[in-house]
């Protein structure tokens, strides 16, 4: 069980790097979708025996994070007819390097934290997701990419929440699924409108508002 | 029952308003829901504290204070929108009234929640209900504003959720305690893990601080307030930021109960002073009236956390300041909205000479100017004075001096623009064309709010005083 969950966490960490290192939006969305799938499978290997609660949580997570949201993102990408990030603030090699730094920081911080039961690699992976999400959110111009970054950030928080799976029932459900669904859905609509108003879907163009 | 109704009635009204097509009927629903909500809140004041849903909802002193503020603000906003919707025909207006009512439902949930996760759900709902209201005009600029707002506040909300998870981690599993229930957290505060608790507080400060608009997390604020309809600006800077403050205050209550004020006070003071400095820097030389008010909001959010950082009398000042600032910001944005309706712009140069064309709104704007800068006898003077006295009592005279210096500069900056607008002899050419009198609906609400803030500076009724004192005590204020 432990080795399986560690394997899943490794996959999640790899998908973080995949999202950091690609310029193609479709590859980024695919990385996020894989991450959602692995994230959804994870509760099944953390809880023993598997309760109905955990099974529905896993099914719901996969349905939303691995199927629905990536679809919405692809739809937004098609509508906006963008394929790749043009000029990110930070290049892809630098992003990857930042990712490795984040990995080191995550493990260093997790070492110093008070120990939690059954946490294992959960905490460092959660921190890595948090930092990766922030990097993508801050350094990418395309709105679709930023939404993907936000999802990675949320997934990191979800991972942290998994440490409380046993103790606080329904905390994860109440929070993340509803919020990510609605938040990204609305963001998707906004993205759609951005495209109707502008030729390209770059939020860097949104700089009309500033102090003189 | 009453507590559940406070959340459900606006929600149901929002659904009804969404189903109605006629604007006039929607407005009737809006007014009825606002009146019903205010009546229920008034009933809460006359009864001992209520509890519902196994303690998940209750009207404790701090929650009731915020709820009363939100309800009063909403009544004013509802009456104002009667006048506004007559003059302006916004596109996609059907969602407008529903959005307002959904917002009321969400803020009521935040105010009454005694469960930290439930409070978070309410905060999330406020964020979402406000987004379509900002994007009301459907042009490029409001699009930019709503995008910035959504990206920043969704990240803030995500951090707030992490804070909730961390708080759950800090709480040991004990029999007879419900995880994340505020009363259990406060009573069992001594048993909380210090490390996780501090981590939770830091993320709550960042998360809710973003929603409050504390510097350096305030960057969405001038754009959003500048572009949103003034009505929404008032609702956000008066109501939404107060809710976000409540979220932060809940975490503060736990920290105070855990006897860990040494950790939180320097953080609060740093964020508070930074917000004041940033606000001062951008108020000077600002050319847009709404953006000016946005930076003024950054200033007052800074004062709120500064008061908590001072503690003692400062915490009392903060609690009083939430009320004063919330009511006044609502009034100011509505008044500015009237001026923008008259001139079609919120740029100061286009607004000049408005005393002759909009005498009532211009007079209110001047009264609001003196109130917002903490001039006696307005309520904000009392709350700021309490903070200064708290600082001096703590031997932190330097804080009081720095803040007084910054507030003086802000006073100069605000009055330079506002007095110029009001007193200028001539506006830009063609400005005199529209002399149509403004509707009474647009003036009465803000006038009442400014009147209440004035009254709060002169006399605080005994029940309110008791409420303020007991709310302040939970935030590190003097025990009543």
Architecture overview:
The complex is a heterodimer of chains A (212) and B (480). With 212 residues, chain A is mainly alpha-helical. Chain A has one domain. Chain A has seven helices and no strands. In chain A, helix 3 packs parallel to helix 7, helix 5 packs antiparallel against helix 6 and helix 6 packs antiparallel against helix 7. Chain B is mainly alpha-helical and 480 residues long. In chain B, helix 2 runs parallel beside helix 4.
Structural class of chain B, by secondary structure, is mainly alpha
Helix content of chain B: over 70%
Radius of gyration of chain A from CA coordinates: 17 Å
Radius of gyration of chain B: 21 Å
Oligomer: heterodimer
Q: Please count the beta strands of chain B (DSSP E, at least 2 residues each).
A: 2
From the spread of the alpha carbons, the general shape of chain A counts as: globular
**Major sheet attributes of chain B:** 2 strands, antiparallel
Looking across the biggest beta sheet of chain B, what order are the strands in? 1-2
Number of helices of chain B: 19
How would you state the average pLDDT of chain B, rounded? Answer: 90
What proportion of the residues of chain A form beta strands (DSSP E)? under 5%
Q: How would you sum up the global shape of chain B?
A: globular
Unreliable sequence segments of chain A: 196-201
Total domain units of chain A: 1
* Euclidean distance between termini CA atoms of chain A: 59 Å
In percent terms, what proportion of residues of chain B is strand?
A: under 5%
Give the proportion of residues in helices of chain A: over 70%
């Amino acid at each position: 069980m432990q080795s399986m969950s560690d394997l899943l966490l490794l996959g999640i960490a790899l998908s973080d790097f995949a999202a950091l290192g690609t310029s193609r939006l479709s590859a980024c969305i695919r990385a996020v979708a894989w991450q959602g799938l692995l994230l959804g499978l994870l509760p099944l290997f953390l809880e023993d025996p598997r309760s109905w609660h955990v099974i529905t949580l896993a099914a719901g997570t996969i349905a939303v994070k691995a199927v629905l949201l990536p679809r919405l993102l692809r739809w937004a990408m098609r509508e906006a007819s963008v394929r790749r990030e043009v000029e990110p603030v930070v290049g892809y090699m630098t992003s990857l390097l930042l990712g490795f730094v984040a990995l080191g920081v995550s493990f260093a911080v997790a070492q110093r934290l008070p120990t939690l039961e059954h946490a294992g690699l959960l905490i460092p992976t959660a921190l890595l997701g948090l930092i990766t999400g922030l990097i993508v959110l801050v350094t990418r111009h395309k709105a679709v990419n930023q939404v993907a970054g936000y999802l990675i950030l949320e997934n990191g928080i979800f991972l942290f929440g998994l440490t409380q799976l046993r103790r606080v029932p329904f905390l994860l459900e109440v929070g993340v699924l509803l919020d990510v669904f609605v938040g990204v859905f609305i963001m998707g609509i906004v993205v759609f409108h951005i495209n109707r108003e502008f030729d390209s879907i770059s939020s860097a163009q949104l700089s009309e508002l500033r102090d003189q | 029952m009453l507590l559940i109704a406070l959340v459900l009635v606006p929600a149901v009204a929002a659904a009804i308003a969404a189903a109605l097509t006629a604007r006039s009927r929607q407005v009737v629903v809006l007014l009825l829901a606002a009146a019903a909500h205010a009546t229920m809140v008034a009933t809460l004041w006359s009864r001992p504290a209520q509890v519902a849903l196994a303690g998940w909802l209750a009207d404790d002193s701090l929650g009731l204070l915020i709820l009363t503020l939100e309800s009063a603000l909403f009544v004013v906003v509802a009456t104002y929108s009667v006048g506004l919707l007559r003059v302006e025909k916004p596109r996609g207006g059907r969602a407008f009234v529903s959005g307002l009512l959904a917002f009321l439902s969400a803020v009521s949930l935040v105010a009454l929640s005694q469960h930290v996760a439930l409070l978070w759900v309410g905060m999330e709902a406020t964020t979402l209900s406000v987004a379509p209201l900002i994007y009301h005009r459907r042009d490029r600029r409001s699009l930019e504003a709503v995008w910035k707002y959504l990206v920043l506040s969704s990240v803030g909300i995500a951090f707030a959720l992490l804070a909730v998870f961390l708080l759950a981690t800090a709480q040991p599993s004990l029999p007879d305690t419900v995880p994340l229930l505020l009363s259990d957290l406060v009573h069992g505060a001594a048993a909380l893990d210090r490390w996780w608790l501090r981590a939770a507080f830091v993320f709550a400060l960042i998360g809710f601080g973003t929603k409050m608009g504390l510097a350096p997390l305030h960057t969405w604020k001038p754009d959003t307030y500048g572009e949103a309809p003034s009505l929404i600006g008032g609702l956000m800077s008066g109501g939404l930021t107060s809710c976000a403050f409540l979220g932060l205050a809940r975490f503060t209550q736990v920290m105070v109960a855990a006897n860990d004020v040494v950790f939180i006070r320097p953080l609060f003071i740093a964020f508070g002073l930074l917000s004041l400095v940033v606000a001062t820097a951008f108020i000077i030389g600002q050319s847009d009236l709404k953006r000016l008010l946005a930076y003024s909001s950054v200033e007052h959010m800074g004062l709120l956390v500064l008061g908590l950082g001072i503690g003692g009398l400062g915490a009392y000042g903060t609690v009083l300041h939430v009320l004063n600032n919330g009511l006044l910001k609502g009034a100011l944005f509505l008044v500015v909205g009237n001026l923008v309706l008259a001139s079609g712009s919120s740029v100061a140069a286009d607004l000049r000479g408005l005393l002759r064309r909009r005498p009532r709104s211009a007079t209110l704007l001047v009264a609001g100017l003196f109130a917002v800068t903490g001039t006696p006898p307005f309520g904000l003077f009392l709350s700021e004075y309490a903070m200064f006295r708290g600082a001096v009592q703590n031997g932190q005279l330097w804080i009081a001096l720095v803040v007084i210096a910054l507030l003086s500069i802000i006073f100069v900056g605000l009055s330079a623009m506002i007095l110029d607008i009001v007193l200028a002899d001539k506006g830009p050419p063609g400005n005199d064309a529209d002399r149509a009198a403004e509707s009474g609906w647009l003036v009465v609400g803000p006038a009442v709010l400014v009147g209440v803030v004035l009254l709060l500076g002169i006399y605080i009724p005994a029940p309110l005083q008791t409420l303020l004192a007991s709310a302040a005590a939970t935030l590190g204020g003097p025990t009543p």
